[in-house]
Design brief:
The structure is a single chain. The mean pLDDT is 89. The strands form 2 sheets. A two-stranded antiparallel ribbon has the order 1-2. The protein has helices at 25-53, 56-74, 118-123, 128-139, 141-148, 158-182, and strands spanning 4-5, 12-13, 92-96, 113-117. The chain has 6 helices and 4 strands; from the N terminus they run ββααββαααα. By secondary structure, the protein is mainly alpha-helical. A hairpin with a 6-residue loop joins β1 and β2 (12-13).
Length: 183
């Protein structure tokens, strides 16, 4: 018989019988195990993707990530909304005027989220007194009053979270394209 290449270790061997694809029983077993692992990993990947697509917590994190990326890009050249530090002096966060943990209805509302320096957002818990003064000066008392009102608790659905994510991704893309056109 003509020599063949082993499907597992790729060494040349002379088959003992018709249809033999491995040089030894050990290689045959290993190739079967590899095929099983490959099939298992494909199924597992598919299940993980389905789970990720239908997991509310994961979708909430992805929506938050998209929203905050848009706000950071929108406010990247503006000073910190709370302390006024220049944009080029420190890293920026997307800071909420009304905390997102308490006000779920305002969690993804860009009228509640502005660029803040890390110090104000993390160390000073938002530096809310200065944040409020700055908001009144730049956006008016009407917006601040609206933000200060009690808003209904919002229970986001998975579809709404996916829509928010898509919305802010498209806005970010438009914003980046507009900034490229200006250069």
């Amino acid at each position: 018989m003509k020599q063949r290449k082993c499907m597992n270790c790729a060494t040349l061997f002379t088959p003992d019988r018709m249809g033999q694809k491995a040089c030894s029983p050990r290689c045959a077993y290993q190739s079967v195990e590899k095929a099983k692992d490959k099939a298992f990993n494909a199924v597992t990947r598919t299940k993980k993707k389905e789970w990720r697509d239908n997991d509310k917590h994961t979708q909430a994190e992805l929506a938050k990530k998209a929203c905050h990326a848009y706000v950071r890009e929108r406010d990247k050249l503006l000073p910190c909304k709370s302390c006024g530090s220049p944009a080029d002096q420190c890293q920026r966060h997307a800071g909420h005027y009304r905390p997102s943990g308490i006000n779920s209805a305002l969690r993804y509302d860009e009228r509640n989220i502005f660029g803040q320096c890390v110090r104000c957002n993390l160390n000073l818990s938002g530096n809310l007194v200065e944040f409020r003064k700055s908001l009144i000066a730049s956006h008016g008392q009407e917006l601040v009053d609206w933000l200060d009102n009690n808003h209904e608790t919002k229970r986001w659905t998975i579809d709404e979270l996916k829509a928010i994510q898509a919305h802010y991704k498209s806005k970010l893309k438009e914003l980046k394209n507009a900034s490229i056109d200006c250069v």
